[in-house]
TrEMBL record:
Signal peptide limits: none
Catalytic activity: L-cysteinyl-[protein] + (2E,6E)-farnesyl diphosphate = S-(2E,6E)-farnesyl-L-cysteinyl-[protein] + diphosphate
Organism: Asparagus officinalis (Garden asparagus)
Listed cofactors: Zn(2+)
Protein family (similarity comment): Belongs to the protein prenyltransferase subunit beta family.
Protein name: Protein farnesyltransferase subunit beta
Function: Catalyzes the transfer of a farnesyl moiety from farnesyl diphosphate to a cysteine at the fourth position from the C-terminus of several proteins. The beta subunit is responsible for peptide-binding.
The keyword Repeat is annotated on this UniProt entry: yes
Gene Ontology BP terms: prenylation
EC number: 2.5.1.58
Example of a GO cellular component annotation carried by this entry: protein farnesyltransferase complex
Length: 460
């Protein structure tokens, strides 16, 4: 005969949703893993928290050489595989053999479409997602051949063709239109120094419509707030110098509450923790560190209707002729130049943003996130996974490592200076390379690309 406590437990389980049951299962697995830290010496704790750098490099390098038959489903994502692996190796500070570098550049050149942009493989149609991956891969490689292989004239033509009259971008010819497309297009144009008013026109209005009642940003108007789209939307609004049009206090509130009891981030409300959101959500909070003055100003103006705070003219510019005051974001760009005044080219927001030092510490529990990454997402044989019970893969390896880097540097006032030891969980040898949080490329590769494409402006 069943005990009353057992019967009560069974009845309780029947009242839970599938999602709640899965959540409790994940929490139980994570708690079991975290218990190994109880009562161990500081030296043992440091060893447990060690980043298995050599194993990760081995796993990633093997992926560059040869991928098994199971990867055939990613045939249209091959530039993404390049980016995930190359960026992960760069984060780990692992130099690439010249043979691999030359092979990667040669392959990506064969992915370039005749009219600009990059497809998922040689002969495939150009797509904004794989274009972003290819450009970031070439910038991560960083050689003169890699950087000069990018045809900026053809790229601008492709990006212009993907521009929709609504202001948003389509992922490919006659393809879907969403915030991800806006980010990949604007990010590529920004880092290649080809961003102009025509590409920016009305993009901000589209993204503003995608911010939900929760505060996060959805993929398209009317959809649910999502961590990946929130990063894409926020980064895009920064790059086009219109971030003050978003409700930043509400956005910050939504993202901050996505870090759960497991210490990692979930991508949406009431969803399970996932290692990749270490970057998609952690990256949003890294961006918000530099935007707190704007959020604070918006809070002070809460007595003003939101429509007034975000209202702009139909061309999204502040006109000096009408006497409009400089925007909240102008100090970040170190310029009050409007879109129209610069006659095409936009201010270099990417450089201004990274040079703007945050005056606040992290907006999330960076130590807790590192603990989740090292104990629950790291695979000791190499690579990273979504959560306990899942398999490792190159996608999660890339974005978990990106999130780990963001966490380690979250207390730093200067990304060019190494963080204090207390900011790095585990041995200090765990420290990764810093990234530019708007583009998710290694910071020194960003500086090299910035110098290269700025120098070529006069030639082009």
């Amino acid at each position: 005969m069943e005990s009353s406590s057992s019967s009560h437990h069974d009845r309780h389980e029947k009242t839970l949703t599938i999602t709640q049951i899965e959540q409790l299962g994940v929490e139980e697995k994570v708690a079991e893993i975290f218990q190994i830290l109880n009562g161990v010496s500081p030296h043992t704790r440091s060893l447990i928290m060690e980043l298995q750098r050599d194993k990760h490099i081995e796993f990633l390098t093997r992926g560059l050489r040869l991928l098994g038959p199971s990867y055939h489903v990613l045939d249209a994502n091959r530039p993404w595989l390049c980016y995930w692996i190359l960026h992960s190796l760069a984060l780990l500070g692992e130099p690439l053999d010249l043979e691999f570098e030359n092979a990667a550049v040669d392959f990506l050149l064969r992915c370039e479409a005749e009219d600009g942009g990059y497809g998922g493989g040689p002969g495939q149609m150009a797509h904004l997602a794989t274009t972003y991956a290819a450009v970031n891969s070439l910038i991560t490689l960083g050689s003169m051949w890699a950087l000069s292989s990018i045809n900026r004239d053809k790229m601008y033509k492709f990006l212009s063709q993907m521009k929709d009259p609504s202001g948003a971008f389509r992922m490919h010819d006659a393809g879907e239109m969403d915030v991800r497309a806006c980010y990949t297009a604007i990010s590529v144009a920004s880092i290649l120094n080809i961003l102009d008013y025509e590409l920016v026109k009305d993009v901000g209005s589209y993204i503003v419509r995608c911010q939900t009642y929760e505060g996060g940003i959805a993929g398209e108007p009317g959809s649910e707030a999502h961590g990946g789209y929130t990063f894409c939307g926020l980064a895009t609004m920064i790059l086009i110098n219109e971030v003050d049009r978003l409700d930043l206090p509400r956005l910050l509130d939504w993202v901050a509450f996505r870090q759960g009891v497991e210490c990692g981030f979930q991508g949406r409300t009431n969803k399970l923790v996932d290692g990749c959101y270490s970057f998609w959500q952690g990256g949003v909070l890294a961006l918000m560190q530099r935007l707190l003055p704007i959020a604070d100003e918006q809070l002070k103006l809460t007595f003003v209707p939101r429509s007034c705070l975000s209202m702009k003219s139909s061309n999204n510019s502040r006109s000096a002729d009408t006497g409009d005051s400089p925007g909240l974001y102008d100090d970040l760009c170190q310029s009050s130049t409007s879109h129209q005044q610069i006659e095409g080219k936009l201010p270099d927001v990417g450089l201004a943003f990274i040079n703007k030092k945050p005056n606040w510490g992290p907006l999330f529990n960076s130590t807790a996130l590192q603990q989740y990454i090292l104990l629950c997402s790291q695979v000791l044989e190499g690579g990273f996974k979504d959560k306990p019970g899942k398999q490792r893969d190159h996608y999660h390896s890339c974005y978990v490592l990106s999130g780990l880097s963001v966490s380690q540097y979250s207390w730093s006032k200067d990304e060019n200076a190494p963080p204090l030891p207390k900011a790095v969980l585990g041995p200090y040898s765990n420290l990764l390379e810093p990234i530019h949080p708007l583009y998710n490329v290694i910071l020194d590769r960003y500086y090299k690309a910035h110098e290269f494409f700025s120098g070529r402006q006069a030639q082009d």
